[in-house]
Description:
By secondary structure, the protein is α+β, with helices and mostly antiparallel strands. Helices cover 26% and strands 42% of the residues. It has helices at residues 66-101, 107-139, 185-194, 314-319; strands spanning 9-11, 13-29, 32-36, 41-46, 53-54, 59-63, 142-144, 149-154, 161-162, 167-172, 177-184, 197-201, 206-209, 212-220, 225-231, 244-260, 265-267, 270-276, 282-286, 288-293, 297-302, 309-311. The longest helix has 36 residues, at 66-101.
Amino acid sequence: MLFRSDLKLGTVETREVDLTYSTEALVEAVRQSTVAAQIAGRIVDIRFDVGDYVQKGDVIVRIDERAATQAVEASQAQVAEAEAALRNARAQYDRSRQLLAEKFISQAALDKAEADYKAAAARVTALLAGAGQVATERSFATIVAPYSGVVSARHVELGEMAVPGKPLMTGFDPGTLRVVANVPQARIAAIGQSGKARVEVPSLNRWIDATRVTVVPSADPRTHTTVVRLQLPAEVRGIYPGVFARAHFVIGSAPRLLVPRAAILRRSEVTAAYVVGEDGVPRLRQLRLGTASDESAVEVLAGLRAGERVALEPARVAMAPAAPR
């Protein structure tokens, strides 16, 4: 039999708690993007995979740039040819002006030399612009991370063919997470007045204070709900987009009778706790719980009184062979 000295105990107490309106929510990233290819080519290098943390500017994928390099060399050769033609046209124009001054050629011949010179200059300008464009396209063969974040999806494999617009990787910034909830319009006024909320992540058994509550100024005419965003702290780790959460919006405060969460024992549809009396013997007592709660305690409507002590290890008590019921 377990005695009081063997158990970790908690006390049922009445204290002022926040009254909350709770609703289901979803975690999403403020900054999440999919990097896509901008040129065609075979993928020759993939440096990160799902779950990897990437620093801003890190190379994440490389595309075979041989074709792009050849295009750059061809454009440079065309520019060199055009510049040579421009020098020749310039020299011809200068000679024509001198010959006109000496009355050896007509004005029409000078005009033609001037036109040839201007055309050669324009061609050089156009080819230089084209060469810059080709050089820019070659730089697209090296894909870098636009910001620091975590890779959430990889859409290609080594050796596949990339084409413009084909997704390569998806990532998100874990420092810009928020929770989104659809709230009935009747609750918006109270939520906006308080401006306080907490986020519960059941899968991780974590509670997080929202740093900011933003009510989106639009409503869904079909469901009569409004989207409310809860900004999470930047230092939150272990949470990622798509995780189920609950948003608890503070709408007031009131005294409530609370029992430690650790003391709650759930068996099928029965909710109970082991109450430890003066004799040190834990006895199972069925409870009816309320809605007010936080990460450490939950409201109890019936089954307990303020000041009573409860076992904080109900599973251990339940396994004891002589535990009375």
